[in-house]
Design brief:
Helix content is 50%, strand content 13%. The chain is an alpha/beta fold. The protein is elongated.
């Protein structure tokens, strides 16, 4: 017996041999599920969609039937028909329909094992050698050929070089299948090397016969962001297998991050959105800028034929169009969404006072504020803004009129669906005010990656829906604090190729949005690579039976890898993602390097950080960033 563990040594042995044989499953071919019996779970789900009575308990019955036959005939491979005869006592046309379904699912769930296929390519390119497949399986030979053909491997094998135990009547694990091949074709075992994953069937038994053998490790982890699932869950395991089987074809750190961490979330959101909107056929469907640009692209990859629009909007532009509906400057100030620290110049800009205004008040930022309540304590500023109320409302009414033209509301519209990354839902509230001022009968609903508890408290649940979280406890969703600890990073991943909307203006082409400079311009290529990786995942998932008939799209599973990176980042992840540049007045990194002392400077840095968990960990090195973040939030 000659067991070889390294491919480098294997190449030396192949050079000495005239014949090479490969096992199939977990050698040349990988399944996109953790265990073989998970395939039977997929079949059960397919039967349920067909309303077949056999669906109830199918998976367990299929496993039991196979085990019963194995216990009776250990060294003789069963056929698929034998298993179904054991299950139902007979095999008629109705049962053959289920057999055909199994053969289809068994084919679709298989994908090539990239490292071994690359080695197979090398074997073909380096010498005129006979190449065989020798596999123990209950599947018929024609299904094995379909699996090879689906994965581009049929070209390497002649039909008479594919040996399947169910057709030959003997198995590898008994040694009889190897002996049968030797007797049939008179192969020289000393010049024959066999590759496989099963220690007994592929290594010990052929080694005793005299073949050289190479063990293929079936449990290699290829994923960059691999995690041990928090729950022993078949859905999480299938997702990990699916990505593990494909990630070697994805180049570069940012592409891989997109494929592994962002891809499942946007696939899950778009699939959920399709299901939620199934009955909404006559609504206008608006993806709100900027995060909506990428969400729209992903949704169209999973397109169900629904027309959608990309709508340029921002909190600043939409909220400004509603100021004129309020008669008090304090009410207007409470509509604003402001950063943790801001000056007068930002306040004036948001209120529209930067347009053709000569202020009597100072416009410098020597006075800074941390909240609207802080602003209201500045009596001189409130007095000045109250004096400018007419100018603010005039600007607002102009923006309202332009926004109404840009919206293009018609009498036939019954419902408008807004799609965005979400959180509090304040932009939906502002748009509702504008839309209902035109036509109060139009229903406005929002579908978000997440809808927060703060949004639930402010606006209620009516017309607001969240995928990852939705303002209340749901066992399949996530705790919103897990995302908010790295909310800035998460939002950056969805960024568009343009800046946020500042206002609307009349141009020679009609009403158009006027956008700020994109604040992520210097590092947009990294964001683009992450998005491309996520899009590639969605394309792969779209054509997979695992995602159509097995994975139930539970948000906590789709979020798991992203949550691990965001809440418990490694130094490498902080280095690669935390250094993404933001243009915010001046260029700075998403995670700045700020020392703990002086403490005021550290706290300011923490408040302004878009990835607070990483900021804490980078400052305090070994301390648990997410735990400290949650303690701080609760206080």
């Amino acid at each position: 017996m000659n067991v070889v563990l390294s491919m480098k040594s294997a190449k030396q042995i192949v050079d000495e041999c005239d014949m090479i044989s490969f096992d199939l499953f977990d050698t040349l071919i990988k399944r996109d599920v953790k265990r073989e019996e998970d395939v039977f779970g997929i079949i059960e789900n397919v039967l349920k969609t067909m309303n077949r009575p056999e669906a109830n308990g199918f998976k367990n019955e299929r496993i039991a039937a196979m085990n019963n036959i194995y216990s009776k005939h250990y060294n003789r491979e069963m056929k698929l028909e034998d298993i179904y005869a054991e299950m139902y006592g007979f095999v008629d046309d109705s049962i053959y329909e289920i057999i055909n379904i199994e053969e289809h699912v068994q084919t679709e769930v298989c994908t090539k094992n990239i490292p071994v296929v690359k080695f197979l390519d090398w074997c073909v390119e380096n010498g005129n050698k006979r190449i065989l497949i020798i596999t123990d399986t209950y599947l018929p030979k024609n299904v094995i050929i379909q699996i090879l053909d689906k994965n581009g491997l049929k070209k390497y094998f002649d039909d008479d070089g594919i040996y399947v135990s169910s057709e030959e009547g003997v198995t590898k694990k008994s040694g009889k299948l190897f002996h049968k091949i030797i007797e049939k074709d008179r192969y020289n075992v000393a010049k024959w090397v066999h590759f496989g994953d099963a220690i007994r069937s592929d290594i010990i038994i052929p080694g005793k016969i005299g073949l050289k053998t190479v063990h293929v490790n079936r449990n290699i982890n290829n994923c960059v962001f691999s995690i041990k699932s928090e729950r022993d869950d078949y859905e999480a395991q299938a997702l990990e297998c699916f990505q593990n089987n494909r990630i070697l074809e994805i180049d570069g750190y940012y592409h891989k991050f997109g494929y592994e961490c962002m891809g499942p979330i946007v696939w899950g959101f778009s699939s959920w959105l399709n299901k939620q909107l199934k009955e909404k056929s006559s609504c206008r469907f608006l993806f709100l800028s900027r995060e909506g640009q990428f969400l729209k692209r992903i949704y169209e990859l999973l397109d169900d034929g629904r027309n959608s629009e990309y709508f340029y909007a921002s909190r600043q532009a939409i909220t400004a169009a509603t100021f004129w509906m309020h008669n008090d400057i304090i009410e207007i100030l409470h509509l604003l969404r402001l950063p943790h620290r801001f000056g007068r110049s930002l306040l004036y800009e948001l209120l529209g006072l930067h347009v053709n205004q000569k202020y009597e008040a100072a416009t410098d930022d020597s006075n800074t504020y941390t909240s609207i309540d802080d602003v209201l304590r500045d009596e001189d500023l409130v007095r000045y803004l109250s004096g400018k109320l007419d100018a603010i409302k005039l600007y607002s009414k102009n923006q309202y009129d332009l926004l109404c033209q840009y919206l293009g509301i018609t009498k036939t519209i019954q419902e408008i669906v807004l799609v965005d990354i979400g959180w509090r839902g304040s932009m939906q509230k502002a748009l509702e005010e504008v839309i209902h001022s035109i036509n109060s009968t139009i229903v406005v609903s929002g579908y978000y990656v997440g809808f927060s508890k703060a949004g639930l408290k402010a606006y209620g649940m009516e017309g607001r829906h969240g995928y990852l979280f939705n303002g209340y406890i749901d066992s399949d969703k996530i705790d919103e604090e897990r995302l908010f600890g790295f909310g800035g990073l998460f939002e950056i991943l969805f960024m568009a190729d343009h800046g946020s909307v500042q206002k609307y203006a009349n141009t020679e082409y009609g009403v158009e949005p006027i956008c700020h400079t994109c604040e992520y311009a210097t590092d947009y290529q990294k964001i683009r690579e992450i998005q491309e990786g996520a899009a590639k995942f969605v394309i792969d998932a779209k054509s997979s039976v695992v995602f159509s008939d097995f994975i139930k799209n539970r948000p906590y599973i789709m979020f798991e890898k992203m949550g691990k990176v965001g809440c418990y980042p490694s130094r490498r992840e902080i280095h690669n993602l935390g250094k993404i540049k933001i243009l915010d007045g001046s260029e700075r990194s998403l995670v700045e390097e700020i020392k703990l002392f002086p403490i005021k400077r550290f706290l300011n840095g923490l408040m302004n950080s878009g990835w607070k968990v990483a900021f804490i960990k980078k400052t305090w090195q070994i301390l648990p960033g997410f735990r400290l973040y949650k303690i701080g939030k609760n206080k």
